[in-house]
């Protein structure tokens, strides 16, 4: 099993459609389970309002912080042809297209963060089963 993200960093404008591209290769005959998970960026330091208005204002995601300091939630899961959305994403134009591409529909303020594409197959346990994509949503400059 080998999972890759085509664009590890995506910058999108508020209210524009977003597509995070995740691809996988597997020797399994049955379709795997694809899960996209969202993790917010680490909290901003005091005095920083966290609003991104230009690419130069992109948060520093290299400094690690524990998941307890972030918002973590399931975006969507796909098993066979059935896509199930996490509670936070119901009612939005969110789905998993093709094999494992996450379509977020129009980008919202809360969409900036780290997205983890995980592919699980009981028939193919070797290799790397997840990849990470970063999304930054910009407001109008």
TrEMBL record:
<dbReference type="InterPro" id="IPR036179">
    <property type="entry name" value="Ig-like_dom_sf"/>
</dbReference>
<dbReference type="InterPro" id="IPR003599">
    <property type="entry name" value="Ig_sub"/>
</dbReference>
<dbReference type="GO" id="GO:0016020">
    <property type="term" value="C:membrane"/>
</dbReference>
<dbReference type="InterPro" id="IPR051874">
    <property type="entry name" value="Ig-like_domain-LISCH7"/>
</dbReference>
<dbReference type="InterPro" id="IPR013783">
    <property type="entry name" value="Ig-like_fold"/>
</dbReference>
<feature type="domain" description="Ig-like">
    <location>
        <begin position="16"/>
        <end position="133"/>
    </location>
</feature>
<dbReference type="InterPro" id="IPR007110">
    <property type="entry name" value="Ig-like_dom"/>
</dbReference>
<protein>
    <submittedName>
        <fullName>LSR protein</fullName>
    </submittedName>
</protein>
